[in-house]
Structure formats: C-alpha cells, structure tokens
Amino acid sequence: MAPLPLVPSAPDSPAPDAAGSPAPDAAGSPAGRPIVLVLMGVAGCGKSTVAALLAGQLGWAFEEGDSLHPDANVQKMAAGEPLTDEDRWPWLAKVADWVEETLDDGQDGIITCSALKRSYRDAINRRGSGVVFVFLSGSKETITARLAVRRGHFMPMSLLDSQFADLEEPESDEPEIRINVGPTPGVIAGEIIAELGLAGRADEENHGH
Ligand SMILES: Nc1ncnc2c1ncn2[C@@H]1O[C@H](COP(=O)(O)OP(=O)(O)OP(=O)(O)O)[C@@H](O)[C@H]1O
Ligand SMILES: O=C(O)[C@H](O)[C@@H](O)[C@H](O)[C@H](O)CO
C-alpha cells in the first residue's frame, strides 16, 4: 500500500494553533485531519454490516453507497443482470461527491461501495488524498454461504460470479488495507480500527462534545 494518508505530508498539515493543537492521537496521527473510509468488495462481503458497526463506534458520518444507485441500476441487479461500466459511472460520481463533500466539511466518514475496479477507485479518490479503501476480502465459497441466508436484499446470489469477474483487487500503490472477512463483524471492525490507528479518533465534534 502507498503511505496511508493518516500521516499527512507537511504541506497538507493543519497549522498548529497557539495551544499546539491538533494534538496527535494515541497512534500518532493528527486529530483534525478528515479521512473517509470506503468499505469495498464484492456483494455480500460484509460492507454494510461492518461499516454500520464502525460508524457507530467511531461516531463518523455514514453513507450506504447502495442508496445512491439510480433505480434503474437496482432494478437491473434485482433482475439478475450485472451492471456495466456505463451503468456504474453516474453512481460512482455520487459516491465521489459524498466523499469530497465530507472531506470539505472537515468530517471523518465511512461509505460502502463495491468499488470493484481500479478506475472506479481512482474516480472516487479523485482528490488523491483523504481516502482509504478498506478491502473486505473473502473467498467465493464464504460469501456465497452468507448470501444464501441473507434475506430482504435486492442483490441475487447469481450475480456473485460477475462480481468476482469484475473485481480488480487494490494494488500496493493505492491507499488501501485488506481485511479478511472470516472473523465476526465486531472483530473485523476492531482490526480496521487497530490497523489504521483510529482508536483515539472517535472525535469529539462527531459526538457533540
Ligand atoms: N463477518 C461476518 N460474519 C458472518 N456473517 C456476516 C459477516 N459480515 C456480514 N455477514 C452477513 O453476510 C451477509 C452480507 O453482509 P452485508 O449485507 O453486510 O454485505 P454487503 O457487502 O454490504 O453486501 P451488498 O454489497 O450486497 O450490499 C449479511 O447477511 C450479513 O449479516
Ligand atoms: O458495482 C456493482 O455491481 C454494484 O455496486 C453491486 O456491488 C451492488 O451495489 C452491491 O454490492 C449490492 O449488493
């Protein structure tokens, strides 16, 4: 992975005020610098489940990427047809807008988005900083078993092969971490917090002081 944007390069760093803030948190990353986590991976890898847990624990802004799909996309998937790049671009633009608005507002945030291809991730991270892709990685067998028992979701299990076919796993020059989806959602959320050094970052503003 490229150096995580949690440790900012000097020119981007907020200038400390007279009191010396922003104070580094326990992991040494500066408080006050917003970051957006994009929980990504194929349908059923656990994005929504883990993101909701994380957002609750951290008190960060949260957006469910699936809710940004145009109706036509949802209907297409529900009918068992994979989305094309053309279908996805308008949706990815909305995801990218949410990411940018959150960062511009100075907020930390979490959004779910399958972000299957490198070009999609580059579009989402169009600013080139402030974004970390959290790739929830699991075998087709594991995820098939989970989708087989999931109820009340538009995405049919039959589309899983096409999701894996489209998946271009994040590469080492992207701002990414990879987390195995074998453990429970609580353990996975804890691993993400530990790996990114976020333990001290449940920021006061988001909790209303
Ligand atoms: N770590 C886990 N262990 C066991 N079951 C899990 C785990 N994470 C998620 N699940 C279950 O697997 C199913 C898929 O999870 P979830 O809906 O969060 O995936 P998703 O990636 O958001 O899917 P989609 O992209 O289709 O919306 C759900 O029924 C969820 O309860
Ligand atoms: O790019 C895609 O094909 C879609 O985003 C899907 O991944 C779904 O939105 C999601 O995973 C719902 O299950």
UniProtKB/TrEMBL annotation:
In residue numbers, the region (Disordered) covers 1-27
Q: Name one Pfam family in it.
A: AAA_33
Keywords attached to this Swiss-Prot or TrEMBL record, sorted alphabetically, are: ATP-binding, Gluconate utilization, Kinase, Nucleotide-binding, Transferase
GO function terms (MF aspect): ATP binding; gluconokinase activity
Pathway named in the protein's UniProt entry: Carbohydrate acid metabolism
Biological processes, Gene Ontology terms = D-gluconate metabolic process
Q: What is this protein called?
A: Gluconokinase
